């Protein structure tokens, strides 16, 4: 599922929705793993606490918008460059932030509920 989420992320690179839907699929993959083996083992795979991941993703998305302000352009204006035949730009950086933010936010809610149900 994580590989498919990366495909969705990349596929949406020049189309709307790549970061959000890719993040949802990645969160689903981690949650299915947590249902099978427990939240503790799934957290070990993620390495960062989901809340930290959500904050990191939101910060990256905000940074993508602020970079335009630094160049005197309106917030979230896209800047592009080409590296090895691939177009890279601030919209990709924004999508990375959305992807990480969605994974972190969804897993924060799902795993908190899972731990609450198991506790009692």
Query: What is the approximate shape?
Result: elongated
Distance between the termini: 30 Å
Distinct helical segment count: 5
Strand adjacency order, main sheet = 1-2
Structure report:
The protein is mainly α and 120 residues long. It is built from five helices and two strands. The chain has helices at 2-11, 18-37, 39-46, 50-70, 90-119, and strands at residues 80-83, 86-89. A two-stranded antiparallel sheet has the order 1-2. A hairpin with a 2-residue loop joins strand 1 and strand 2. The radius of gyration is 16 Å and the shape is elongated. The mean pLDDT is 91.
In short:
With 120 residues, this protein is mainly α. The chain is built from 5 helices and 2 strands; from the N terminus they run ααααββα. The protein has helices at residues 2-11, 18-37, 39-46, 50-70, 90-119, and strands spanning 80-83, 86-89.
Topology:
Elements: H1 2-11, H2 18-37, H3 39-46, H4 50-70, E1 80-83, E2 86-89, H5 90-119
Antiparallel strand pairs: 1-2
Helix pairs in contact: 1-2, 2-3, 2-5, 4-5
List keywords for this structure.
120 residues; mainly alpha; elongated
